[in-house]
Structure formats: structure tokens, C-alpha cells
Amino acid sequence: MGHWLERNIIEPGKLPLLLALAAFVVTFVVTRSVTRLIRAGRGPFGNVSAGGLHIHHVVPGVVLTVIGGFGAVATGRGGFGGAAFAIVFGVGAGLVLDEFALILHLDDVYWTEAGRQSVEVVVLTAALVGLVLAGFAPFGVNGLTHDEFQNRGTVVLTVAGNFLFSLIALGKGKARLAVLGIVVPVIALVGALRLARPGSPWARRFYRRRPRARARSSLRAYHHDRRWTGPRRVLQDWIGGKPDSEITRARGHS
What residue intervals traverse the membrane (predicted)? Predict the structure, then answer.
């Protein structure tokens, strides 16, 4: 284990990234555990307020992210300082992305259906950082041979091609595949080749006069959502807690 850590993490200079990822995941897990206890009225925890104003944990998260980011830039990648600031950055990022939905909607949607977006972003971020940590370079340039990598034209074409696949996948309404495809190009290629989702920019532009393509797109999206929406929600509820129902929210505001 020590040899593997030295060869694959410490020697390539990935220790700060590993520490940041670990701090990010641990912070998210601890934060969600505490907020779920507060929601259930259990434990010694409570919401933080100042002068009647509820201080969301995204606020200290932003502060820690700024401190960790600028500190890491100032100290460089090596040494104790770089590792310490990487941990600070990971903690801050965990607090910020746990309330990503609040930032996106500019509303306290933490325990609503919209709040599921925070869990999705956290899982996606952890997966992307994990892939980079495992050696997957953005746009798949890690798959080139030494001679190919020396050829700048090959590198440029590889990056441009993979970027194009990611853009097409995004235009077809497949945001998750587009983002993951940045580091694993075959995923973006799959998203680029498959039918666009109904209502996506690609579908509005290219399926407008193709009723059969629109019908196939709608049918595939229906079967995909029917197959995966339920399991995905179960996983999201297990990770981040089940959102309040509309009835529960209405009672809370009455």
C-alpha cells in the first residue's frame, strides 16, 4: 500500500488533490448528517443565526474556498502548506456545493425536489476528481503514445475532437455524459451519437421537421426516465435525505 501511494500519488504530486477530495467528501457527509439531525430535531445541533438572519453553511464555505485556493496558489503544490490549504479548499468546496441548489435558484430549496441538484453536483464533482486522481487526463490526452504526445497537432486534434463530442452531448440534453466525457471521451462519444432528449437545443434545431425522429426521441427518453429516475432518486435520498413533500411544505408555511 505504501509503495502504491508513493508511486501513484506522492511522486506524481497528486497528494494535495487526494487530500482535497477526501476533505470534500468527508465535509459533505458530515454536513448532510448534521442537517438531517437538525431537520429531525435530534442532537445538540441547530441552525446558525446572527441578528435573526439564518447563516447558511455556503457562507463559511465560500470563505474557506477562497482561503484554500489562494493559499494553495501562494505556497505551490508541495510541502505541508500546500497539503493544509488543499484540505481547507476541500472543506470549503464541500460546504459550498452542498448548497449548490440554493445558489442556483437563489432560494432556500435545500429540502425540496430542486435541492436534489446539490447531491447530483457533489456526486458528479467527486467522480470527476476521482477520475483525474486515477490518471484520466481531461479530453483523453492520457491515451496518447509518447510519440503522439510529442506531436502537437495530434494533441490539438484529440482535444478539439473530444471537446466537440462533449459539446454535442451537452446540446443533446445529456449534461452528465458531457461533463464526464471531458475526462473519459468514450462517454461523450456515446452521448454525441445517441438521440437527443426532447426539448434539447439539438432536438429543437434538427428534429423540428423530422416527426419520426421526435417520436423516437420522446419514446427513448420516456423509457430511460422510467428505468432510471426511481433508482436515482432512491440513491439521492439515501445520500442527501428525502425532500419534503408539497403538503409538508405548505403546512410549514401556514
Answer: 15-34, 54-73, 80-101, 121-141, 153-171, 177-196
Q: DSSP class of residue 10? A: I
Angstrom distances, CA of residue 250 to CA of 245, 247, 253, 254: 9, 5, 5, 6
d(CA 57, CA 52): 16
Which residues lie across from 53 on neighbouring strands?
50
pTM score above 0.90 = no
Flag whether pLDDT at 239 surpasses 50: yes
CA-closest candidate to residue 192, choices 228, 12, 28, 182: 182
- Residue pair 92/36 in contact (Cβ under 8 Å)? The answer is no
Spell out the domain ranges in the chain.
1-135
Task: Convert the pLDDT of each residue in 58-104 to its tens digit.
Answer: 999 999 999 999 998 888 766 778 889 999 999 999 999 999 999 99
Enclosing H/E stretch for 53: strand 53-54
Nearest to 124 by CA among 167, 178, 165, 169: 178
Residue 175 contacts residue 192 (beta carbons within 8 Å) = no
Distance of CA 31 to the CA centre of its chain: 17
Query: CA 98, CA 125: separation in Å to the nearest integer?
Result: 11
